[in-house]
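Bug #2210: C-alpha cell dump truncated for Nucleotidyltransferase?
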Amino acid sequence: MEKIRERFANFQKALLRLKEAVSERSDNPLLYDGAIQRFEFTYELAWKLLKAYLEYQGIVSISSPRAVFKEAFSVGLIENQEKWLRMIEDRNLTVHTYDECVAKIIFERIKSDYLPLFEELEKKIEELIK
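Reproduced locally. Full output below:
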C-alpha cells in the first residue's frame, strides 16, 4: 500500500501542475507545449498508479497502458474507457510528432476530456487508500 500512496502523491502533484497549465488563457504556443508536457507526465503517473493498485489487488499480468486502462475499467476503477484509450493515442501523437494544429486540438481535449478523467481518478484512489 505504501507504493500506491507514494505513486498517488506524485500523481497529485503532477495533476496540480497540469491544472495550473490549462487554466491559463493564451494563444502562446509555449502554453500549449508546457500543458502538453504536463499532460504527458500526468498520463504516465496515472497509468502507473493504476497498475500499482491493480497489482496490489492481485492483478499482475498487465504491463501496457492500454491493458491497464482496460483492466481498470473492468474492475470499476475508471469510467469512460473510450476516452482513456483515446488518451493513449493523443499522448503518442504528442511524443512522436509536433504539429501546432494538432497541439491545439490536444490541448483542448486535455482541458475538456482528460483533466476531468484525471480528477475522477484522483477522487477514486483517494477513497480507496484512506
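Output looks complete on our side. The mean pLDDT is 91. Marking as cannot-reproduce; reopen if the truncation happens again.
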